[in-house]
Design a protein that fits this description.
There is one protein chain. The chain is an alpha/beta fold and 350 residues long. It has helices spanning 3-7, 9-12, 31-39, 53-66, 86-102, 118-128, 142-150, 162-171, 201-208, 225-233, 255-263, 286-291, 303-318, 340-347, and strands spanning 19-21, 44-47, 71-76, 132-136, 155-159, 175-179, 185-186, 216-219, 238-241, 269-272, 280-283. Helices cover 39% and strands 13% of the residues. The strands form two sheets. It has an eight-stranded parallel β-sheet with strand order 1-9-8-6-5-4-3-2. The chain has a three-stranded antiparallel β-sheet with strand order 7-11-10, with no helix packed on it. Residues 1-6 have low confidence and may be disordered. The structure holds flavin mononucleotide. Residues 22-25, 28, 47, 49, 74, 136, 158, 179, 182-185, 219-222, 240-244, 327-329, 331 line the site of flavin mononucleotide.
Length: 350
């Protein structure tokens, strides 16, 4: 596919603004947020990673009841099922025992599968035919790429290094999201066990702009109209923003998470493996702090994600941020609490 065709991807989608309101699986990307973003002229994105094929279908139908504008679906590239031996499980159980007591939870029962079945999720995507399909954590298999092309669904992969971006381009994607170290949520690093390359967005854009034939989408720490302009000037064809929309009216962010996001404009974030077994950036909290230095009590992704799910759920139900994954990027300042449409307009005001 030629670069000229690729760079028209966002025009082809008929977007008013070169903005993707980030897929944020686990609650924030509600039906209302996706529909509001797309209706306002950006690309809304469903974070479908933790949803079954049926749930994805229900969600997409609800978005389509609200808008006929384009939106995307986002999934996690599946991981090989990690071997969880007795010993590490015992260490993880012991390290979290007092939290489960505090949250009045029974002892954990961990068994595979640790994540949703990707093939059935992907089949739902093919059936539902969103305007785009985006993914994170690696490359889509060539069979999946061919199936998406046959169904005429453009593909967007996620990269944290130039090498990952190049591999995505070579695999046939239509655009690449460059995720800087500033970004909230999971780091898109292909290798779940690798160290974090920690490349900031500005540097990543400088490494990739002009060297790839596919359009680049800049993500990580973009909060203001000036940030958007800077990313576009640095060679991105579009931006992807998550944190900035987390407390907008339509976001499905839970009450204790919202409260924590609003508590201090100087949100202190760092990356941790404690919640899911993969690096992700979030606001510092008790669980993150107390699991620090206990790498041998953290199971591999996605087993750890399933292992901590009961604690995260109970923490939300209690209205406590202590055991929640409070994903957020490094961007500072008070967050927009009005409508998604109004924030989008402000970001592109002349
Ligand atoms: C709460 C939250 C959940 C996220 N979930 C996903 C996801 O499911 N899929 C994905 O590709 N990216 C996910 N991300 C990462 C975003 O796509 C994007 O890289 C990030 O939000 C950009 O940085 P920012 O938050 O500073 O704007 C998530 C980010 C946040 C804040």
């Amino acid at each position: 596919m030629s670069a000229a065709t690729d760079s028209n991807l966002f025009q082809k989608l008929g977007l008013k603004y070169p903005l993707i309101v980030a897929p944020m699986a686990g609650g924030p990307s509600s039906v209302d947020l996706v529909a509001a973003a797309s209706t306002a002229g950006a690309l809304g994105a469903m974070g479908g990673a933790y949803s079954s094929a049926t749930a994805i279908e229900t969600f997409v139908n609800a978005v389509r009841d609200r808008t006929d504008k384009p939106f995307s679906i986002n999934l996690f590239i599946p991981h090989s099922i990690p071997e969880v031996a007795q010993e590490p499980l015992a260490r993880a159980t012991q390290a979290t025992a007092r939290y489960r007591t505090e949250l009045e939870l029974p002892a954990p029962q961990l068994a595979p599968p640790y994540e949703e079945d990707f093939d059935s999720q992907f089949e739902a995507v093919l059936r539902l035919k969103p305007a785009c399909f985006s993914f994170v954590f690696g490359l889509l298999s060539s069979d999946h790429v061919s199936a998406a092309k046959k169904a005429d669904i453009p593909l967007i992969g996620t990269a944290t290094t130039f090498e990952e971006a190049k591999a995505l381009e070579d695999s046939g994607v239509d655009a690449v999201t460059l995720q800087g170290f500033e970004a909230g949520g999971h780091r898109g690093i292909f290798d779940a066990h690798a160290d974090d390359p920690k490349i900031g967005l500005r540097e990543l854009l400088a490494q990739c702009a002009g060297k790839l034939g596919v359009p680049l989408i800049a993500a990580g720490g973009i909060m203001t109209a000036a940030d958007v302009r800077a990313a576009l000037q640095a060679g991105a064809q579009a931006v992807q923003m998550g944190t900035a929309f987390l407390v907008s009216t339509e976001a499905g962010t839970s009450a204790p998470y919202r409260k924590k996001l609003l508590e201090a404009p100087e949100r202190k974030t760092r990356t941790t493996r404690a919640f899911s077994g993969r690096f992700a950036r979030g606001i510092e909290n008790r669980f993150m702090d107390e699991m620090e230095g206990k790498a041998d009590a953290i199971l591999p992704f996605p087993a750890q994600n399933k292992f901590t799910r009961d604690m995260r759920g109970a923490s939300t139900a209690k209205g406590s941020p202590d055991f929640l994954s409070l994903w957020a990027g490094t961007g500072k300042g008070e967050l927009w609490q009005g409508s998604t449409a109004a924030l989008i307009e402000r970001l592109f005001e002349a």
